[in-house]
């Protein structure tokens, strides 16, 4: 049963959480081209009920046993299906399913900034929102995904992004850079304004496929990140945990990235009857880039071809 007509891969069962993945009725048959692509390789480039569209230190990839049995099954993969290690994206818990397709980024362009959710582009292209605590590496991740050094301008001053910024990828889908949260040096009124219009975007954006919630893996879990994840879940907004800075080990701040990720997973495990998708990344080494794009391709293809 759908709680509301919104693109999502996770839904809230009752306030407060737990959260779970929702079933989505079909809209139309997957195109032959997408079906043939299957779990295609992302090559060198390198969540979901939906509404009607028109209405540093380099670390080796983590061992696969970090995933254990807590796998995220994307659309098209039935619970209980046999999953082999080569079906799981390295450094993640994400299974590659039948909707995975061409994930190459051939071109990306900045479309514009919006001070209000209602000012965002009005077309029906699917989009992924990039969200996280200020200084978590949002702009760096966008630059790495698009391979454009200045697609999203990075800054040494956290909190620089104060608008909703749309980047059109391959003329077919959007990456959306949202203001960071939790920047202590910003004024209280500014933090409240950013929170207000960002939440308005989440609650009213019909073309939102899912949120990439960035978590800094170089430090222990932060309460503000857990609070943000809970808010998204309670509002039926699908999310993927994207662990950033997995190439860094900070002295005196506790733990290696894989250790911090494990603590984070243990902290949220009680909230999710079904595990949410997560992936390790580094904008410095390129870790997780292709895998994240492949994951996004299968969510996007499902939304574009099957979701109602």
From TrEMBL:
**Keyword Lyase belongs to the record:** no
* Keyword set, alphabetical order: GTP-binding, Magnesium, Metal-binding, Nucleotide-binding
Give the CDD domains listed for this entry: YihA_EngB (cd01876)
A Pfam match: MMR_HSR1
Q: Which InterPro entries match?
A: G_ENGB_dom, GTP-bd, GTP-bd_ribosome_bio_YsxC, P-loop_NTPase
Per its Swiss-Prot or TrEMBL entry, what cofactor is needed? Mg(2+)
Record-linked NCBIfam families: GTPase_YsxC (TIGR03598)
Q: Which PANTHER family does the record cross-reference, listed alphabetically?
A: MSS1/TRME-RELATED GTP-BINDING PROTEIN, PROTEIN, PUTATIVE, EXPRESSED-RELATED
Positions of the UniProt region annotated as Disordered: 38-62
- What species does this protein belong to? Urochloa decumbens
Query: What family classification does the UniProt entry report for this protein?
Result: Belongs to the TRAFAC class TrmE-Era-EngA-EngB-Septin-like GTPase superfamily. EngB GTPase family.
Q: Where are stretches of biased composition, namely Low complexity?
A: 38-48
Q: What is this protein called?
A: EngB-type G domain-containing protein
| SUPFAM superfamilies per record | P-loop containing nucleoside triphosphate hydrolases
Molecular functions per Gene Ontology: GTP binding; metal ion binding
Q: Which part of the chain is the EngB-type G domain?
A: 124-302
Please indicate which superkingdom the organism of origin belongs to: Eukaryota
């Amino acid at each position: 049963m759908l709680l509301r007509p919104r693109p999502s891969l996770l839904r809230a069962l009752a306030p407060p959480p737990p959260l779970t993945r929702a079933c989505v009725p079909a809209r139309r048959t997957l195109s032959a081209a997408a079906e043939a692509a299957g779990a295609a390789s992302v090559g060198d480039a390198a969540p979901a009920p939906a509404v009607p569209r028109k209405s540093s230190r380099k670390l080796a990839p983590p061992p696969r046993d970090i995933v254990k049995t807590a796998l995220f099954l994307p659309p098209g993969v039935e619970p209980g299906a046999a999953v082999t290690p080569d079906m799981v994206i390295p450094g993640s818990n994400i299974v590659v399913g039948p909707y995975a397709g061409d994930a190459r980024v051939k071109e990306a362009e900045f479309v514009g900034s919006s001070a209000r959710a209602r000012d965002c582009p009005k077309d029906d292209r699917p989009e992924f929102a990039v969200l996280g605590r200020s200084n978590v590496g949002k702009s760096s991740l966008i630059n790495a995904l698009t391979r454009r050094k200045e697609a999203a301008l990075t800054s040494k001053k956290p909190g620089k992004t104060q608008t909703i910024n749309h980047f059109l990828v391959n003329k077919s889908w959007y990456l959306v850079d949202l203001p960071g949260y939790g920047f202590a040096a910003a004024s209280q009124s500014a933090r409240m304004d950013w929170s207000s219009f960002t939440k308005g975007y989440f609650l009213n954006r019909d073309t939102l496929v899912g949120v990439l919630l960035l978590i800094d893996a170089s430090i222990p879990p932060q309460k503000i990140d857990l609070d943000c994840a809970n808010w998204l879940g309670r509002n039926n907004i699908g999310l993927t945990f994207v662990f950033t800075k997995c190439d860094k080990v900070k002295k005196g701040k506790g733990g290696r990235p894989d250790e911090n990720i494990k603590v984070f997973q243990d902290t949220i495990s009680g909230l999710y009857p079904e595990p949410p998708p997560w992936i390790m990344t580094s904008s410095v080494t390129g870790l997780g880039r292709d895998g994240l794009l492949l994951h996004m391709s299968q969510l996007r293809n499902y939304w574009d071809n099957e979701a109602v």
